[in-house]
Amino acid sequence: MLSLVLFVVCFLSLAHAQTPGRYPKSCYEAKSWNRTNSNHVIIRPELAPEPFVVLCDMDIDEGGWTYILNRYDGSQNFSKNWDSYKAGFGHIAGEFWLGLEKIYQLVALEINELRVELTFEGEDQRRDLYTSFGIGDEKSGYVLHLLDPVIFDATDCMSLAGGMKFSTIDKDQDLNSTHNCAEIFEAGWWFRNCTPCGLPTGVYLQESIGNDDAHRRNIRLKEASIMIRSAAQELKLPKYYKQPMPERKEP
């Protein structure tokens, strides 16, 4: 209850501080308005009928990132139906999924970069970076448009998802003819064929199997975040990064 009260106070203070009738379209634009602290920001993408609150990261790789998923303690259940994944669920001050419709509104009119950061139990943080990310509208099944990553060391769940429609426990849109992958993994995602991987929306700390380039290993998801940012910001790669892009094949 206290966290909810604090969030309402934060929301009202943000609304009061915002320029009347004018909102940034994303965290990237908010940064250009000198909003340089990683925090909650009210935005309104061009296609959004109403403004909404998002979590911004203004520090990583020069900032301007908008969170579309954040997980760190297992407090939020991600086994949800289609309507929930469309609208979003959870709490912006805790664990949440922003919502497919809001994600579509954010990425529909411009190219966005995608950043996936995962931490598995007993391991350091891993990340994937993609130079181009987008999804279609609801009529398309929120089909995923994705280019190959420029950094790839977190999970194959995203790379295998390109071109796929979104599936949930009550809406099966994967390519598996006998099973609903969303039911198997108890999570919504752009599933292809129920391939085991380190799923960002998967059951918290439940043992699963992930690909680590050359071999499979047992993993337990501990933390996950997915962020997007306008591709107008130049993506800076770590100087040490020289690893070639591994070939990914669907089993």
Automatic annotation (TrEMBL):
Highest taxon listed in the record's lineage: Eukaryota
The entry's keywords: Signal
Residue intervals of the Fibrinogen C-terminal domain: 18-232
Pfam families (alphabetical): Fibrinogen_C
Cross-referenced InterPro entries: Fibrinogen-like_C (IPR036056), Fibrinogen_a/b/g_C_1 (IPR014716), Fibrinogen_a/b/g_C_dom (IPR002181), Fibrinogen_C-term_domain (IPR050373)
Signal peptide bounds: 1-17
Key word Signal present: yes
GO cellular component: extracellular space
Protein name per Swiss-Prot or TrEMBL: Fibrinogen C-terminal domain-containing protein
